[in-house]
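stage 2 :: seqdesign
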């Protein structure tokens, strides 16, 4: 069920270390099937941490690149997940990772630096239930529902910054990132929330998300 592969590891690690949520990491790794996005946040967070921690030393061996590339990738890895290399310059990032995991255990997760919580608490069952309670409290009879969401303009700036970061990181691995290689925030939001709405209200949902089309 966990959708990321070894090829996604550098990008996932980079985004995770800067405070990006698991679902946004999926988006920027181009995960375009719905199921993984619907897992609970806690499960996603734990699976992601496990994914990023395992086989750390083997990563270099699996990269089929000529020697100069290996050196570059090796330096990159030291910089990113330098838990075993205390002398390297990765300490700052590691402490962010540790801080993130501690914060998650103690209370609610840190707010994602890309989606600002839209793919965290604002797409989870608890929040959708609250929206549905409002709908039901209106007393109307209805056979379908249009759910319109406006994202703040600030989000497109963050989305674009993350896109540039990922593009740069992939460039170091001689990979490219096109504008359509990532999953749009609004798409992921629909994938997660529409089934929850239908389940709660028992009617089909049509979704509109206004604003925010980055790139
Ligand atoms: Zn996010
Ligand atoms: Zn953009």
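stage 2 :: out
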């Amino acid at each position: 069920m966990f959708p990321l592969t070894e090829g996604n590891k550098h990008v996932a690690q980079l985004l995770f270390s800067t405070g990006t949520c698991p679902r946004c990491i999926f988006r920027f790794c181009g995960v375009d099937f719905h199921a993984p996005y619907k897992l609970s946040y806690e499960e996603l967070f734990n699976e992601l941490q496990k994914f990023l921690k395992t086989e750390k030393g083997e990563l270099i061996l699996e990269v089929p690149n000529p020697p100069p590339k290996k050196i570059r990738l090796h330096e990159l890895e030291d910089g990113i997940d330098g838990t075993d290399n205390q002398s390297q310059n990765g300490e700052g990032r590691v402490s962010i990772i540790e801080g993130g995991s501690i914060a998650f255990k103690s209370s609610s997760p840190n707010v994602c630096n890309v989606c600002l919580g839209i793919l965290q608490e604002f797409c989870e069952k608890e929040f959708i239930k609250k929206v549905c309670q409002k709908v039901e409290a209106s007393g109307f009879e209805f056979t379908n529902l249009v759910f319109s969401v406006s994202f703040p303009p600030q989000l497109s700036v963050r989305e674009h910054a993350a896109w540039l970061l990922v593009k740069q990181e992939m460039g170091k691995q001689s990979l490219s990132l096109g504008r359509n290689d990532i999953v749009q925030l609004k798409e992921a939001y629909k994938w997660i929330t529409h089934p929850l709405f239908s389940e709660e209200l028992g009617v089909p949902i049509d979704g509109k998300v206004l604003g925010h089309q980055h790139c």
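stage 3 :: structure notes
- The longest helix spans residues 154-172.
- Strands lie at 145-150, 205-210.
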